[in-house]
């Protein structure tokens, strides 16, 4: 398979984006907006110089997503709470109870995020707690990745029926409640 001009431009912009994220020359949000503007500029420059990589009418479609706007709002709220010092107090409280051991800190972080996610969107709860986990990681020397993975799992509540089968969040997509096929595996109370 031969690389087309469009593919080379996309790979170049992707490499530039990765460089901006890894080097942290500019903040991550500034890098993201810069890349979005760069993609938009490819529609203005004549195709003889740079191919148009994105449809100009769909350049800002991502902002119509409820999840994207929610994450942006939660990150803004989280930055505000961080500036007030509340997140530092939460991190200090978790470290006071959990000490600096991974076995005690992870359940505290995960339980707190799980509790918060019962009142707000799951991704938002995890995003709100990122400054707390970052501070705890810096103060204890524990790798941030080892703290974030369990937190991510606990921020996403599972919806299962009595037999361990997944139930969609939308009630309209759930199976008919009158239909009961029984467990998918033999149990002690199964009628044989």
Can you summarize this structure?
By secondary structure, the protein is mainly α. Helix content is 57%, strand content 0%. The longest helix has 19 residues, at 5-23.
Structure explained in plain terms:
- It is built from 8 helices and no strands.
- The chain has helices at 5-23, 28-41, 66-84, 86-98, 102-116, 122-128, 130-140, 144-154.
Output the radius of gyration: 23 Å
By oligomeric state, this entry counts as single chain
Number of separate strands: 0
Query: How much strand?
Result: under 5%
H/E element sequence: HHHHHHHH
**What is the helical fraction, as a range of percent?**
55-70%
Instruction: Round the mean pLDDT to the nearest integer and report it.
Output: 78
Number of DSSP helical runs: 8
Indicate the topology.
Layout: H1 5-23, H2 28-41, H3 66-84, H4 86-98, H5 102-116, H6 122-128, H7 130-140, H8 144-154
Structural features:
192 residues; mainly alpha; 2 domains; 57% helix; disordered C terminus
């Amino acid at each position: 398979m031969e690389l087309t001009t469009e593919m080379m431009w996309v790979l170049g912009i992707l490499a530039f984006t990765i460089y901006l994220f890894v080097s942290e020359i500019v903040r991550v949000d500034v890098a993201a907006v810069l890349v979005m503007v760069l993609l938009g500029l490819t529609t203005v420059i004549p195709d003889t110089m740079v191919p148009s990589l994105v449809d100009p009418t769909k350049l800002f479609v991502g902002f119509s997503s409820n999840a994207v706007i929610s994450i942006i709002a939660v990150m803004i709220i989280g930055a505000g709470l961080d500036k007030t010092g509340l997140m530092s107090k939460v991190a200090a409280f978790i470290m006071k109870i959990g000490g600096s051991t991974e076995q005690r800190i992870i359940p505290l972080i995960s339980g707190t995020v799980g509790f918060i996610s019962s009142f707000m969107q799951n991704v938002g709860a995890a995003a709100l707690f990122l400054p707390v986990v970052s501070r705890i990681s810096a103060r204890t020397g524990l790798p941030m990745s080892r703290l974030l993975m369990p937190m991510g799992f606990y921020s996403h509540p599972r919806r299962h029926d009595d037999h361990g089968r997944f139930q969609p969040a939308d009630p309209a997509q759930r199976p008919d409640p009158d239909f009961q096929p029984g467990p998918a595996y033999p149990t002690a109370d199964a009628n044989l």
